[in-house]
Amino acid sequence: MSLYQEIRPVLEEGIDRKELAALRARFLAVNSGRLERARLGMSARQQAVLRLLPLLFHVNHPILPGYVSGTTPAGVSGYEPDPDTLAEAQRLSRSFTYRAVRGKPAQPIHGLFLMGSLGTVAQDEHSDLDVWVCHAPGLAESQLDELARKCAQLETWAEAQGCEAHFFLIDPDRFTQGARDAKLTSDDCGTTQHYLLLDEFYRTAIWLGGRTPLWWLVPDYEEHRYEAYAATLLDKRFVRSEEVLDLGNLGSIPTGEYLGAGLWQLYKAIEAPYKSLFKLLLVEAYANDYPHIRCLSLDFKRAVYANRLELDELDPYIVAYRRIEQYLVNRADHERLALLRRCLYLKINKPLSRTPTGRSKSWKHCLLERLTADWKWDGRQFVQLDGRSQWKVRRVVEERRALVNELTYGYRFLCEFARRQQITCSINGRDFGVLGRRLHAAIERKAGKIEAINLGIAPDLAEHSLTLVQGYDAADDVSWALYEGSLNARRLSDFSPLKRSRELIPLLAWCHRNGVIDVSTHVAVHPGDSGLTEGELFALLTELRQALPMPPQTVPDEALLSPAMPVRVLLLINVGVDPLSPAQPLSFDELSDSLGLGSSPEHLVLSIDQLTLNSWGELIATRYENPAPLADCLRDYLQALPAQGARPNLQVRCFRNAGVSLARRVETVFLDAQAALDEPGESRYLLQIRQHFHMLDLAAGNIRHTALNDMGALLEHLGEAHHTHRPLRLDRHALEGTDLAVILGQAREHCLQVFYRVQNGLAEVTVLDEFNSLWRQQQVFRDEQSLLTPLLRFLQTVSYRRTTQLPFEESRLAAMDILFYRLLSAAPNNPLTLERRPAPREEVSDPFYDIQAIVEPGERGRSQVTLYCNHQEFSSLEYGAELYAAVAHYILAQRRGNERYPCYITDLDLSGLLGGGRTQTVQHLRYKTQLETAINQALQSA
Predict the structure, then answer these.
(1) Where does the Adenylate cyclase class-I N-terminal domain start and stop, copy by copy (predicted)?
(2) What is the pLDDT of residues 437-486, one digit of tens each?
(3) Cβ neighbours of residue 163 under 8 Å, at least 6 residues apart?
(4) 779 near 800, Cβ under 8 Å?
(5) Fold type of domain 737-837
(6) Which of 214, 386, 823, 866 makes a 20 to 30 Å CA pair with 260?
């Protein structure tokens, strides 16, 4: 049979050894052409590495690279170095002499193969050498370890020669069963891709030495019974087993492999879109034909059998392009087809807009010219694509739109394919979730997120000069715009801006995130009505570069499996606003405070711009303005913190008057509040700004902010019942110089604390109950005995009433101490001090009458009150609206001389009103105040 005819062996009709020899010769001819093309694309030193690889695995010699020991597995099946290889080895090591081993030595290296883009139209000077080292099955662990060490040393040596090489140990027996001894290529997403990897190997591999693939000798139409056909070839000695290497076949590819391959290409496309989208489209074209899929490697084999050996037509990238092109043409998907062609053109990287160097055009140049002629491209398209290294924002944004559409479509296609084929393997869960979140972080838009426009499209977006302008938008609202070049105000209307933004910091963050402004960029400023200066702008840009380095580090999968958490937070205070300017009216005292002459300057915080880099690599901008920027920003900052784990790197900057002290003060507030949040259990944090108060309830993931306009509102809030112990942490300047700061600083759990202060004939009594809720009352002071004894009696009876509702042993534990303190001040403006006081000792002769109150629910939401004075009952059922007058008349009748000094409730039962649940002492004190006020008013009127 002529070597130029199509060969179609039929097993049942017998196999011709001459045909098998002819087929092997055809594959080797294609292999020789590809190997030569691979060498043409390499430097001289890289060529030397490639030429020496078979020899270095064939012998163990101490003066050659990769030597580990004399026992390292060596010997490539059937290999004998040619004179050129030996000459190269002697140039490397002059004293090296090759000695052929006599007899039949063991040759455990069964085959060496290059895999990937080498020898294809996609090869460039940066292409790696991915080498499959196929070794004899059953090597001992020690032998495999030494062989792996040899590979590692060869990688180091190759790197020193300017060649990036990776070696992968392959046990053919284990490989055909789907097991792997190592990651076979960098294209490994953790999901099994055995058959698609084998498909890529068979259509791209370049044989360097050893046994040739048995797969070559099995016709593509026999792939469905590959095992039987291969067994016949071996059993009947049509081929000798020591001449071939069997890595398996492509008879049936599980659906999960298309999904896994697609997921991984999507993953890689986020950073290197052109190469990965090309492969992603091939996976899509494969999956679209399921279950009637024909792999490209089978087409390659059929072409060789048909003696169609033109290297250009067999080029793996060209063949893949043809398959994808046909798929997209059938779908009339012209936009994606245009993107596919751009991907291939940029991957080939042979600029057709420039005259090639050298006397003649390279084969790649000629091939690309034929392709682009079929595409009907013109010179304008060549110039545009060849200038990709010079692409700036406008062109990158346009290209990003096409790439994002493709990424989004690819993800949806894979999701639908998984659903339609009911793929239930592990890639449906974890890997799909991780990829979805990675895509979300890279391309999804959301409020405040700074968009990353350069998805591996262009190497440098930095502009030489820019103009930053504040103006007004169509709705007459203030906005900022960024223009190319250095423009004066009169020329602005002739140009369209690169980017608009309502706020300045998101616009600067966008420039920083995408590298539009670098250290050499000149930015002209037209600040409009803002107070932004060139000096402040320079400081802002410098701070962005230092505080938020770009690009962010690659986000690990583990981070994407958890919600996004803040990693770095930059707070910029009063950008473009001067709180000390005439436009911001401040009193002399406030001005003194801001300059450190008084207490705290936080009231000078007029705006906060927050930039947050989170654990997903997203950059988020948020602006806080009046009425309470500091409190609102603090609330959101604490809300974003995880319940456990590392805290973000927080930096606060202000480039205005008093900026350093103001930034330091704000940072202190944030760190103190964060420390309070990190304490066990729930707590509260109180921040005071001027005469306004802000209470933050601190529970991880559930921060509540309550604004309190004055001291009265604060006292009312502190007096609310909450039935749990929640420590209150004061900002270090909150309530400064007040007795309330001293009292709250004494708060303890599970006890009743009574504080009193006597001043100008009046006594102010404050109680912190068992949960540190606060009750306060002011009254005329006679003496400590009359001031404190009624209150002590009341607290004791309320506490006793509560404990009687518990089992005896629990009631003993539930009993609470009642502690008394007196607030003293040695002189005006001196700090208050606390003096611990003993509880008042009640004498039998003290003229106090027991007044007990029982409050129960009534009709129409009204409470029914029953009072007992010396066990005499007075009920609203009997007296109605005259209840308190009747009680007052009774009390006056018991007193000598009709004295009208105040009376006090000594016992109060609210169980009927508040239900059977445990009541809190502050609730009793509040009702006590209301009842006493009503009775004492009646006493004065009687």
Answers:
(1) 20-216
(2) 888 888 888 999 999 999 889 899 999 999 999 988 777 788 999 999 99
(3) 42, 45, 46, 49, 50, 129
(4) no
(5) Nucleotidyltransferase; domain 5 (3.30.420)
(6) 214
**Tokens 């002769």, residue located:** 845
Phi-psi region of 735 (alpha: psi -120 to 50; beta: other; left: phi over 0): left
The predicted pLDDT at position 215 comes to 97
For 231-262, the three-class secondary structure string (H helix, E strand, C coil) is HHHHHCCCCCHHHEECCCCCCCCCHHHHHHHH
The β-bridge relationship of strands 212-213 and 244-245 is parallel
Rounded to 5 degrees, φ, ψ at 353 are -80, -5
**pLDDT average, residue stretch 546-555:** 91
pLDDT for 560-611, tens place per residue?
A: 989 999 999 999 999 988 776 655 544 334 433 433 323 456 678 999 999 9
Cα–Cα distance, 873 to 927 (Å, whole number): 19
pLDDT digits (tens, 9 = 90+) for 899-911: 777 888 888 888 7
Strand partners, 822: 756, 835
CB-based burial, 902-912: b 16+ in 10 Å, e otherwise:
ebbbbbbbbbe
Q: Is 593 left (phi over 0), alpha (psi -120 to 50) or beta?
A: alpha
Peptide bond into 680 cis (omega under 30): no
CA atoms within 13 A on the CB side of 860: 0
Query: Is the N-terminal amide bond of 551 cis, ω within 30° of 0?
Result: yes
SS (H, E, C) 686-733: EEEECCEEEEEEECCCCCEEEEECCHHHHHHHHCCCCCCCCCEEECCC
CA 655 from centroid of its chain's CA atoms: 30
| Cα 45 from Cα 842, distance rounded (Å) | 103
**Residue (of 786, 802, 790) closest to 928 by Cα position:** 790
* Residue 397: both structure tokens together: 């944004």
Task: Provide φ and ψ at 464, rounded to 5°.
Answer: -70, -40
Helices 363-375 and 334-348, packing angle to 10 deg: 160
Residues 289 and 749: their CA atoms lie apart, in Å, by 71
User: Taking CA 273 as the corner, what is the angle to CA 556 and CA 132, rounded to the nearest 5 degrees?
Assistant: 75
Q: Which single residue is written with the structure tokens 């997209």?
A: 328
Domain ranges of the chain: 11-252, 283-294+315-443, 464-551, 562-731, 737-837, 851-941
